[in-house]
Amino acid sequence: xxxxxxxxxxxxxxxxxxxxxxxxxxxxxxxxxxxxxxxxxxxxxxxxxxxxxxxxxxxxxxxxxxxxxxxxxxxxxxxxxxxxxxxxxxxxxxxxxxxxxxxxxxxxxxxxxxxxxxxxxxxxxxxxxxxxxxxxxxxxxxxxxxxxxxxxxxxxxxxxxxxxxxxxxxxxxxxxxxxxxxxxxxxxxxxxxxxxxxxxxxxxxxxxxxxxxxxxxxxxxxxxxxxxxxxxxxxxxxxxxxxxxxxxxxxxxxxxxxxxxxxxxxxxxxxxxxxxxxxxxxxxxxxxxxxxxxxxxxxxxxxxxxxxxxxxxxxxxxxxxxxxxxxxxxxxxxxxxxxxxxxxxxxxxxxxxxx
Length: 355
Ligand SMILES: *Cc1c(COP(=O)(O)O)cnc(C)c1O
Hints:
Layout: E1 6-7, E2 31-38, E3 42-50, H1 61-65, E4 68-70, E5 73-77, E6 83-86, H2 88-101, H3 109-122, E7 134-143, E8 155-165, E9 176-181, H4 198-213, E10 218-222, E11 230-233, E12 236-242, E13 245-248, H5 259-270, E14 274-277, H6 282-290, E15 294-301, E16 305-314, E17 317-320, H7 328-341, E18 352-354
The structure holds pyridoxal-5'-phosphate (PLP).
């Protein structure tokens, strides 16, 4: 049996923002979950404590070599007041897959799951209620050993912080303008692309900033070797509807196995939509746009759920998708997933877990 979770409640409660003022990841709740790892003890002392800063030695390994991981999932408050996590088990499994790749010691899946339900329960008053809002859950592991040698650390910190959030993109479901990147890469085969770890984000910033300065919302990454195959949009997975088929790149090591990706694929297969997880080149997408068969493009991820792409810029050309409007399948996926998340539609796959 796992160690009981100690709970220390905050004596000062913060003021909660109004639902309409929520953006993404700027406000944090009153509590956080923390657990330590030492080589001799394993993971120990799981606890909920008041949200606050960690004292970190300047030599702390993660600050130098980036040995870390994170996850991202959400809790939703339904009209009936029930708070539901969406597919937490999938996130637990992915957290441990990333841990393995990052040479971070595995965490007990039961303890990770309980860390989420426990801290959300303590801060349940922070789960916003309006549609489009939710409580974002950010589990993180960092190598906390003060040591400058290069090897996996012997000490780690696992923590979970919570942030009430509004829509990820200020423009909401409005289709995004995406720049196809053919001069920088996010990940290469055999690298860290399939791990949810800080390094991938650091690698992505420069190109994304350049694209934003040029007026784009996000970037589309191509493969790291030939700059030919479509991989991901920003920090989301991508799906293209060409003719009567939906195509998404396969999980071949360079892209993240998104939970929303899996959710969308499962739903579409259930609806009888033809879906293919296969490599797709940017040239195939351009050709489809030119011959009129590129019907929809959208990104999938926990933060935005479904984010339609209205325009793709590649080699100085602009491909407009579905006249810059959200397509019918993207809209149906969004509506279906959101309805399940807020407990307004049946949940035949048992994706939600009440807290
Ligand atoms: C988190 C993430 C995604 C989306 O995964 P979800 O589980 O759907 O939120 C996609 N790509 C990258 C690089 C990510 O970090």
